[in-house]
């Protein structure tokens, strides 16, 4: 059974909606094309529920999850998707159990049928990289900076309402 958690924690001295929250979401998914597709859909759902833009993030998650399901797959092992939002930065982490197979950004010729996923991540993310975890794990991460939505001013006590 997949485990899923979602949490919003306000930093001390901040009000909800003021941009001081630390939000996170994590889920274990099967290392299959279906699991990769679900990672993208769950990302869109989480970011929409937080009122954040999801277009770039959904493409990055799709590529990282597809890589985990294709190149990081071991039978019977899942991959983990984690999203963190701190301030105006979204950090996407995809952890799999193939620490022996690190992703490499390669130049791809025009006729190649695959190999462009990390080029897309490179183009869409502000930063990305790989963290080697306790063997046999690795985490491929990407960070996207966005402009947080403006807080809606309170209309309580407004004259004329």
Quick tags:
161 residues, alpha+beta, 3 helices
Structure description:
A hairpin with a 5-residue loop joins β5 and β6. This protein has a six-stranded antiparallel beta sheet, covered by helices on one side. It contains three helices and six strands; from the N terminus they run ββααββαββ. The protein has 161 residues and is α+β, with helices and mostly antiparallel strands. The radius of gyration is 18 Å and the shape is globular.
Count of helical stretches = 3
Could you say which overall geometry the principal axes of the C-alpha atoms support? globular
Element pattern in H and E: EEHHEEHEE
Strand order within the widest sheet? 1-2-3-4-6-5
| Helix share bin | 25-40%
Strands, count: 6
| Alpha carbon gap, first and last residue | 51 Å
The overall pLDDT average reads 83
Q: In percent, how much strand structure appears in the residues?
A: 25-35%
Structural class: alpha+beta
Low-confidence sequence ranges? 10-18
Q: State the oligomer.
A: single chain
């Amino acid at each position: 059974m997949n485990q899923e958690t979602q949490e919003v924690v306000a930093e001390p001295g901040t009000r909800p909606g003021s941009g001081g929250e630390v939000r996170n979401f994590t889920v274990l998914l099967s290392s299959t094309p279906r699991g990769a597709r679900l990672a993208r859909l769950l990302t869109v759902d989480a970011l929409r529920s937080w009122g954040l833009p999801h277009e770039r993030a959904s493409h990055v998650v799709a590529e990282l999850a597809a890589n985990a399901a294709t190149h990081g797959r071991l039978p019977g092992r899942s991959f983990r998707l984690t999203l963190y939002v701190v301030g105006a930065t979204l950090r996407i982490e995809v952890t799999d159990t193939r620490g022996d197979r690190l992703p490499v950004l390669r130049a791809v010729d025009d006729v190649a049928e695959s190999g462009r996923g990390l080029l897309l991540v490179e183009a869409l993310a502000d930063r990305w990289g790989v963290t080697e975890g306790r063997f046999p794990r690795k985490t491929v991460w990407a960070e996207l900076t966005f402009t947080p939505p403006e807080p809606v001013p309170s209309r309580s006590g407004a004259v004329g309402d």
